[in-house]
Write a structure and sequence with these properties.
It comes from Miscanthus lutarioriparius. The chain is of the alpha+beta class. It contains nine helices and 13 strands. It has two domains: 238 residues, Up-down Bundle (subunit c (vma5p) of the yeast v-atpase, domain 2); 79 residues, Alpha-Beta Plaits (2-Layer Sandwich), CATH 3.30.70.
Length: 401
């Protein structure tokens, strides 16, 4: 069963309170009222605040950028699923930095080497965006090359399967089935299944120079049967006309062992190329998913930091945590969070406000939506991030809106 995660932020505003004391209160509340809800700290570092105006501008960009980063992670995940299905292998567990995705989330640690905390927030966000964009572009190129090979294989398979009226006949005909001499030639006739008796009783009379009892069936599918017929070369055109009048199709065919062998070799090479490219692309997708998901979590940490300051004020004083409530326990967890937020902020955790809040989020069409809480700063409205993970992907608590 899928595990759903919330990433939340709570204000540390009570006089004398600390993040540690608020964490203890949250642990106590969860253990007493929703003991089956896993709870973890989500470690957001002390990032560079900058100016209040820069945070407001960045907050608007974060909403749009988050959709992009989310979308890329899902594209890679879907590509992995397609590749595993094409290879007939069981789906492997996705990992981030060598650990399961949920473990990475619940034990998240900021990568100081990749994203220095003293860098401007806009620079960190820009670095994440450019890195994810490069991975997306690389995936498009790799996927296009792989799909091109698949398309070539599909084209060959279509020629070698399907209706006898259009498919390649070379793999159905043997050398001994064909006669080709100075005067005699063997033709291949496509006969509707329901007209086989008519063909066998009439083909000798379609022209005076047809070899008696020369027709034999080579193959039959759900619609047609493939028959040979031998006749004099000089009456081929007349025979085709008479056969067409009777509802029989004479296929143009020239038996060529060289062409047949060439097609076989081409097919084998394409199959080898397809498997090699599938394996290579799958390995790349595993590594890239890890990279993108890690970037996504760093992005979420930045967004929590920015929106917490905009919501709760300066200096930064908040507690971020990850919870995994069950559907039945969701209401209890909301009540706990509401109590810890105090009277000023408790309204943002009430269930009845969800519909209005979701409408302000502006992302109802995303597969991975955002659980948001609204705050008002005079005429300004911003959306505060709250995420959940389902099957290692962030999805909405509200469902499709």
């Amino acid at each position: 069963m899928a595990t759903r995660y919330w990433i939340v932020s709570l204000p540390v505003q009570t006089p004398g309170a600390t993040a540690a004391s608020l964490w203890s209160r949250l642990q106590d509340g969860v253990s007493r009222h929703s003991f089956d809800t896993p709870l973890y700290r989500f470690n957001v570092p002390d990032l560079r605040v900058g100016t209040f105006d820069s945070l407001l501008a960045l907050s608007d960009d974060l909403v749009k950028s988050n959709v992009f980063v989310e979308g890329v992670s899902h594209k890679i995940r879907r590509q992995i699923e397609d590749l595993e299905r094409a290879g007939g292998v069981d789906s492997g567990a996705l990992t981030v930095d060598g650990v399961p995705v949920d473990t990475y989330l619940t034990r998240f640690v900021w990568d100081e080497g990749k994203y220095p905390t003293m860098s401007p927030l806009k620079e960190i966000v820009g670095s994440i965006q450019s890195q994810v964009a490069k991975i997306e572009d690389d995936m498009k190129v790799r996927a296009a090359e792989y799909n091109n090979v698949r398309s070539q294989l599909s084209a060959i398979n279509r020629k070698q399967s399907g209706s006898l009226a259009v498919r390649d006949l070379s793999n159905l005909v043997k050398p001994e089935d064909m006669i080709s001499s100075e005067h005699l030639v063997t033709l291949l006739a496509i006969v509707p299944k329901y007209s086989q008796k008519d063909w066998l009783s009439s083909y000798e009379s379609l022209d005076t120079f047809v070899v008696p009892r020369s027709s034999k069936q080579l193959y039959e599918d759900n619609e047609y049967a493939l028959y040979t017929v031998t006749l004099f070369a000089k009456v081929v055109d007349n025979f085709k006309v008479h056969a067409r009048e009777k509802g029989f199709q004479v296929r143009d065919f020239e038996y060529s062992p060289e062409a047949q062998e060439s097609t076989k070799q081409e097919m084998e090479k394409l199959l080898q190329d397809q498997e090699a490219m599938r394996t290579s692309l799958l390995q790349w997708c595993y590594a890239s998913y890890s990279e993108v998901f890690s970037s996504w979590m760093h992005f979420c940490a930045v967004r929590i930091f920015v929106e917490s300051i905009l919501r709760y004020g300066l200096p930064p004083s908040f507690l971020s945590a990850v919870l995994a409530p069950s559907t039945k326990g969701e209401k209890k967890v909301r009540s706990i969070l509401e109590e810890l937020c105090g009277n000023v902020h408790s309204i943002y955790w009430k269930v009845e406000d969800d519909a209005a809040v979701a409408g302000l989020g502006g992302e109802s069409e995303c597969k991975i939506d955002e659980k948001s809480r609204l705050y008002e700063d005079e005429a300004l409205q911003n959306i505060f991030l709250m995420k959940e993970v389902k099957d290692f992907e962030l999805e909405t608590l509200l469902g499709d809106n």
